[in-house]
Amino acid sequence: MIPPIKLPKTLKSADAEALRECLAAASGDAELDGTEVQALGGLCAQELLIFHKRQLKSNYTVRINASPELYDDLQLLGLADLAREKGESQ
User: Fold this and answer.
1) For 53, which of 14, 23, 44, 84 is 20 to 30 Å away at the CA?
2) Domains of the chain: total
3) Neighbour tally for 2: CB within 10 Å
4) What is the CATH number of the domain that holds 70?
5) Which domain holds residue 39?
6) What is the pLDDT of residues 22-72, one digit of tens each?
7) Distance of CA 82 to the CA centre of its chain
């Protein structure tokens, strides 16, 4: 597994391209550290979903460790199954 990829505190839709580029560089099993994320925009959520699907298609795993705020935002978008909330065991 590659070292965890630290996600910024805010993932606004304007940050989607930078997030896409960051995730594109990942290879193999991946862990995303979203424990400090305070807000998630729709386009960044889409990038996380695309990354997750790409990983599964390539037979790799992805684990997103989410702050309560990130987990709530993913839950509102119907994507809570992509992440585990901070403090939650896998």
Assistant:
1) 14
2) 1
3) 12
4) 3.30.750.24
5) 5-85
6) 999 888 999 999 999 999 999 999 999 999 999 999 999 989 999 999 999
7) 7
- pTM of the predicted structure, to 2 decimals: 0.87
| pLDDT score of 82 | 85
Q: Counting Cβ atoms within 10 Å, is residue 46 exposed (0-12), middle (13-18) or buried (19+)?
A: middle
Structure tokens at 29: 């099993």
Strands, E, within the chain: which ranges?
A: 5-6, 10-11, 30-34, 39-40, 62-66, 83-85
CA angle 79, 3, 44 (to 5 degrees): 30
Has residue 90 been placed in a domain?
A: no
Residue 1 DSSP label: -
Cα first-last separation, the chain? 16
Alpha carbon of residue 40 to chain centroid: 10
Which residues have C-beta within 8 Å of that of residue 35, sequence separation ≥ 6?
Answer: 65, 66, 67, 86
